[in-house]
Structure formats: structure tokens, C-alpha cells
Amino acid sequence: MTQSLNTEAKLQGEHVYVYPGSDIDSDAVIDGFTQLWSGLVIKAGVRIGSGVIFLKNDNNSTNTYVAENAVIGAGCIIGVDVTIAQGAILEPGAVVLQNVPAHAIVGGNPARITGYTQTDDITRDSNLITAPNDDIVNIGVNNVTLHRFKLVKDYRGDLSVGEFTKEIPFEPKRYFLVFNVPSEKTRGEHAHHECHQFLICVKGSCSVVADDGVLRREVLLDQPNLGLYLPPLTWGIQYKYSPDAVLLVFASHYYAADDYIRNYEEFLVAIEAKHNAVN
């Protein structure tokens, strides 16, 4: 039996219980055998498989938010106070106790990110794999470019070099290193209003997803003479760190908290505002 107390959502299966205080969009689809507790927000275009369990607190409430067009597979378990960002996919049976970024694909117990939706892995392009030294390739996302620097082999030790601003298109004012990242963790997940960044994995490897709000590309940085330029208003994600990975990042600006865009929906708003200002 389906009990719908406050929603016109497309409750497809039996035994869907919607409790007062939840906010379920009428365009959401819920397949069945699910309890939707007070405090749960499900936005338009969300698809929830059968038997999904939303955990609740002692007050029969959960401050969980499922953003537009997310997909939750059958039998998933979703924790309290979890945000599942727009377009994310939870594979069947995933146990999700932490926030899920926009367009991320997660699975397992505990859930970890295995990829991102509609993302091309451009490192599989043979033209990039065989690109010569000093080559610069536009990856097709917001003027993000992949740079292959000079690599000099020598029995005394190898050397790679790049020059600002001849080869890297800005003067750096700051650098930082990211290392000792557990393989299941994700870094980045933000954009900048003004700051340019340049990423080089000087040891080990990691993957970078560049997102302009429409297109996404994934690049594997696994050579110290390979770098990725991220201009402003590019959503950047780093994940799949090898245990020994050391990521060096050059930045065009000093640290400023208000230059960061940490919410994907706010990022899309900023992209639209820029587009409207240009046109």
C-alpha cells in the first residue's frame, strides 16, 4: 500500500510512506518499499529505486537533500544529514554516509566515487598519449589545456621544465602541495571566480575532472612533465590518487575565501551570470 501524505510524486510501487515534513517534488519517481521521513528533500527528476533506506534520527527525521536528476539505485542506504548533489548516481546497494558531489558515480560499502557521469577520459586519446614535448592540447572544456613539457633524460637524473608565462598562461602568486590522500578520497570539488590554477602530479598519479557546467573531461596526470591548466569558472575535481601521489598546484592569486565557489548549483548560477553579461 502506498501512503502519500503531502506529495504528488510519481510513487510507482507499493509501500511508499511519505511523512509530514518531507518535501518531495512532483516530478520525482519512487519505485517502492521506501519510507520518506520528515526533513527529507527530493528535487525534480530524481529517481529512487525500490527498497532504498533513508536513515533517521531519534525524532524520525532526516536532514537529507537529494538534488535534481540524481539517481538512487535499489537497496541503497542513505545516512542522516547527507546531501546528494545534482546528477549523482548511487549504484544499487551503496551505503552512503557522506555527501556525494554533483555528477559523481558512487558504489560499495562504504560508498566511494568510481567515476563521473557523462565524462570522457581524454587520456585514452592516442594523440595525447603520443603528443611530443612542448605540446599544448585544448581538451574542449572552458579553455582547459593539457601541457606536455620538455623532458630531458640523463644518467645523472631526469629533468622537466616549464616557463611562466611563456608556457603556463599566468604569473603564479601561490603554490600548494596535496599529498597523503587516501585513495578513496576526493579533493577539489570547487571553482574560482578569478583564480587560475595549474596542476602537475610530480610523483605518482591522480585523475582530474574539469567541468564547465555542460561538458566534463577526465585527465590522468601520471607524469611529472604533464600539467593541466584550469582557468576561472572551471569546476575542478581530483581523485583516484595513488598512494605515493604528490600534486603540485600553482595559483594566480593569493588565497581569498570569497573567490571559491564550493556549491555546484552556485557554480551554475555564476556561469549563467557570466554568459548573460557577455551577451
In the predicted model, the low-confidence regions spanning at least 5 consecutive residues are 1-8
Global outline? elongated
Terminal Cα span: 52 Å
Number of helices: 2
CATH overall fold name of the largest domain: Jelly Rolls
Strand order of the largest sheet: 2-5-8-11-14-16-17
- Give the total of domains: 2
Quick summary of this structure?
With 279 residues, the chain is mainly beta. 7% of the residues lie in helices and 38% in strands.
How would you portray this structure in words?
This protein has 279 residues and is mainly beta. The protein contains 2 helices and 31 strands. The strands form 7 sheets. Strands 2-5-8-11-14-16-17 form a 7-stranded mixed beta sheet, with no helix packed on it. Strands 18-27-26-29-24-31 form a 6-stranded mixed beta sheet. It has a 6-stranded antiparallel beta sheet with strand order 19-20-28-25-30-23, with no helix packed on it. A hairpin with a 6-residue loop joins strand 21 (150-152) and strand 22. The longest helix has 15 residues, at 264-278. The relative contact order is 0.11.
